[in-house]
Amino acid sequence: MTHMSDPVSTAVRAMTAIGSGTRADVEAVTHPDNVNREAINEPPACRGRGPDATWATAIWLRAAFSNLRHTPHDVVADGDLVVIHATMSGKQTGPFVTYDEKARIAQVFAPTGRDFAVTQTHWFRLRDGLCIEHWANRDDLGMGQQLGWVPPTPLYLLRCARAKRTALRAERT
């Protein structure tokens, strides 16, 4: 089925739906074969294709960051490719869990309660009027510094170790 819509608005809706949209919002802009090239450090459910995997990414991010939002600044489109320069912001109110290439818990960043705002560039490829591919360039170091992950204090390292043990226990049940 071909969807007639503006590629720019579709890509912007896809990016903003991750932070504040509903599952229906995600489904409305996500191709059944969509792949997120950034999902390598995300939970296993995020590594699939289509709206289910995209929604899993939204849930994963929202579990760690409340008030998560993406504010677009500049958008450029060329054919089936749309690039968005944006700021991602929020507050870390939950543990941020990353995964290794075998989908095992790699690291858990304990909640700090701090706000952050970092620039990112998101790239979307569209097919049939829907997002079929996504990748991004992010300022992860800047985010880590704003959240107090970098440089870590000894107390924060202890909190992260505790948070990782808790996440591993929860994963087993």
Automatic annotation (TrEMBL):
One protein family per Pfam: SnoaL
Superkingdom per UniProt: Bacteria
InterPro entries with a match to the protein in the record: Cyclase_SnoaL-like, NTF2-like_dom_sf
GO biological process: polyketide metabolic process
Name listed for the protein in its UniProt record: Ester cyclase
Organism (species): Gordonia westfalica
